[in-house]
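INFO  loader      accepted 1 record
INFO  loader      residues=424
INFO  predictor   begin
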Amino acid sequence: MTDFNEEVKSEIKGISDAVEATSKQVTASIESNDATIKGLSEDIKKQNDNIEKFSAFIQSQGLKGQEVETQELSLKYDQAFYKLMRSGDSADIGIASTELKSMIGEYSDAMVKLAESKGEFDTACEIKAAVTNQFGLGGALVPLTFSSGIIKKQRDFSDVRRYARVQTSDVGGLLITAEDEDSTFNWVGELESTSDATHGTFGDVEIPMNEAEAKIVISNKMAMNKAFNMVSHVQATIADRISRGEGSAFTTGTGTKTPKGFMSYASGTSNGQIQQVVASTSTSLVYEDFVSLETQLRGVYRRGAAFIMNRFTLGEIKKIKSTDGVPLFSQGNVAENIASTILGYPVIILDDMAGASTSGVFTANDLVVAFGNLNLAYTVLDLGAGMRVVQDNSVSGGVRWKFTKFTGGGVHNGDALKILKIKA
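INFO  predictor   done
INFO  writer      dumping tokens
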């Protein structure tokens, strides 16, 4: 009996050990499966993150989730891209590298076409730049830096139009009636007779219309560039060029085929003339010169008057002080909207005027400063039809635009301006 019991116990222990060993194997297998499932979950999460990042990129291109031309192409690309992001190798996704490149190109082209059809040229440009052939390095998501504009030089010009009187007319020009001489005034006794020997007179001031043109040529390739609106840029460039040409003519134009600038009139106080005040020296300006210039302008024209000069002349004026040390120039404050002044009057900078050299020296007989009210003195004349544009596609390899504008300018009241002349 004893031997039988021992045999049973041994058999039970063997079964128990086998069960325990099997249990451990099952537990280990479950733990291994859990780790595998966890790893797969992490992989899936990573791929979902990649897809979300890619979707965010597409959203950033300004397409706002709109479908591209065909849903088939979009689905095919999304599937290929998903697999590519998982493996990093196009060979693992069952599609040849060349086909993948072609597919990405087609997908990009479809998005570009959609953006261009909506007039979103900057967006189209960014999509083009975002596609490269470095797939294994994630190059399809690396945008290049691309300029969507043109570097434009900034140039100084005389903005006379801003301050003068502006009027429209036809191509024949403008005829302004103005006083030649003041009306006579007399006290007459009760029995005295009056005389017509002296009386006020009127005359005409004629401002002719002048034709100005500007041309620009660009290559066909530049004209077809969709990264920016080239036509709009050309128009803005030409408008700026014509403004600079006009400003120069309104300031110093001779009146021969051009507007006559207010600095080009003969010295005097009659119609068609502007009084010139001679400075104290032939090489520099002093405080008293500006007092004399101000004094010559009648009070009725001082409201709205300003000192007019180029920036080099202003640089020298900033150094001038009165005999008791009072600066001629008073510095303003742009942030607080306080204008700079000379003797309490604002300053207008017109860089087409003659003035001091870079070394601060003036030239004898130069007309360097004007003082007065340009709105009451000078008329800018425009043709009501505006600017005419002609596009010429016959230029070899390019396109030429020609812009024509009719404009004129002239002094209609010389009394409202005085000019400071450097002593001979």
